[in-house]
Amino acid sequence: MRWGFSPPKITCGLGLAAISYVAVDYLRHLSPAWHERLQPALWSILALIAISRVPFYKHWSSEFRAAIPFVASMLFMLACFLLEALSVRLVTAVLGLDWHSETPPLPDTGQWLLLSLNEKLPGPLVEILRARIIGLHHFLMLFMMLAFSVLFDSVEAPGLGLGARYMFTMAIGRLLRAITFVSTILPSARPWCAAARFRVPAYPHHWAQKYYVPYASDADAIRQIINRDIAYADTGEYHGDYHPDWGSMNFLVNFLRPTPAEGASWFSLLKRAGGGCNDLLYSGHMLVAVLTAMAWTEAYGGFSSAFIWLLVMHSAQREIRERHHYTVDCIVAIYVGILLWKMTGFIWPAKDSMRSRRLAKLERIQGRLIQAAKDSDMDEVRELLKEVELRSQESQHKGHSRYLWLFSCATIFLALTIVLLAFTWTSDG
User: Fold this and answer.
1) How many structural domains does the chain have?
2) The predicted structure's pLDDT at residue 345
3) Are residues 153 and 256 in the same domain?
4) How far apart, in Å, are the Cα atoms of 147 and each of 144, 166, 297, 311, 429?
5) Distance (Å) of CA 289 to CA 28, 135, 169, 187, 319
6) Is the domain of 126 the same as that of 261?
7) Cα(404)–Cα(375) distance, rounded to whole angstroms?
8) Is the pTM of this model over 0.85?
9) pLDDT single digits (tens) 390-399
């Protein structure tokens, strides 16, 4: 007989914890004094409850097996963030600050719709839509709460496996996003933003002066370049850019276009790139929000997943309302996030899929198991159950192998992209 204490399984507390976190954090806008009291208390309570569950956690072996994919995902995500920051600075600098301040925003019917609704909806409802209820850090924290809920058996273990899938999917999404917005430069919905945040030169890069500026607004020039398929205009004398000594990273000068006031370190320029200013199709904030909602829906479900999706929709309309993004950026981010999460499902099985595989194996050996039980052959029963467990672990290892293979391919693709861009820009002068 085995003696000991096993805490009860908690299946509904995660949703209440998520709602409490969002509500308490919103008190910073309603009552800062109460926020200062309640937020530390909430985090302390959640931390103590989580720590109390650690001694009873039964899935440490699966967590250790998921550690390598988790670390690999983190490194890949950081590399994609670095490429994204480089691309953000590039699309901001290549046309110069004058273009950003003089080019009008694109017409956005989603923004028009929200403005018209402000005139028709009740005032309190409009104020709710305007309220800053949810932000990027909230969605990241909600996912952290989801991953740590493996301690309560609310989500199928390992938590590091779920984290690996989340970061890997986000990295792929960020990589695709950088490729998308760097391919066609769109004007910002906030024309003053670039001049307020960046110190890039006011005039365009020589690439833009040669291939874009002479053909930007003249219809006859556009028709001629289409017919000739060659840049024919005489650009005249080009104003040279500032070229700091960055050693082996000098090739980045053409991408980042530093000024004397900020050219001491290429890495400091990338850190200040932030979310950029001109429109970056698609929205990175919305990608994070959708991935959090997809992870929550698949791993946990229930009423709280509907609550998360409502927060996603609220965040989307606020991005559009406050003109951080065009409507198309939010719409594309939603369906890209959903599709990417579905495509990376092989990294970590969906909820209950491991249980389904075990049940399928048990059905196949049902006859042998019943016969062994009738014969009171407990050794045979143990062997059969061990075989079921080993088959489940083999399936999980195969998933990790596929993940590592895709991670290697994505890393090679990322490296080749950087090398190709560096060669193209440096060879052009």
Assistant:
1) 3
2) 80
3) yes
4) 5, 10, 13, 19, 49
5) 21, 9, 13, 24, 12
6) yes
7) 45
8) no
9) 555 545 545 5
What is the separation, in whole angstroms, between the first and last Cα of the chain?
A: 79
Query: Is 333 a residue whose pLDDT tops 80?
Result: yes
Q: Which residue range is the domain that position 218 belongs to?
A: 206-240
Copy the structure tokens of residue 16. 């209440």
User: In angstroms, what CA-CA distances link 121 with 114, 117, 164, 279, 358?
Assistant: 10, 6, 42, 29, 53
User: Does 245 fall in a domain?
Assistant: no
| Cβ within 8 Å of residue 142, ≥6 positions away | 18, 21, 22, 292, 296, 308
Do 67 and 192 sit in the same domain of this protein? yes
DSSP state of 186: B
Q: State whether 44 and 76 are in the same domain.
A: no
Residue 419 to residue 429: CA distance in whole angstroms: 16
DSSP 179: H
Residue 72 inside a domain? The answer is yes
Percent of the chain with pLDDT over 70: 77
Looking at residue 15, its pLDDT comes to 82
Does residue 289 lie in a domain region?
yes
User: What type of residue is 59?
Assistant: H
**End position of a domain, from candidates 300, 329, 344:** 344
DSSP conformation class of 106: P
Torsion angles phi and psi, residue 11, rounded to 5: -120, -10
CB 70 within 8 A of CB 63: no
Taking CA 400 as the corner, what is the angle to CA 396 and CA 406, rounded to the nearest 5 degrees? 145
pLDDT top residue among 404 and 328: 328
Confidence of residue 2 (pLDDT cuts 50, 70, 90): very low
What does the pLDDT look like over 196-237, one tens digit per residue?
888 888 888 888 888 888 888 888 888 988 888 888 888 777
Q: Dihedral of CA 289/290/296/302: which sign?
A: positive
Helix (H, G, I), strand (E, B) or coil at 99: helix
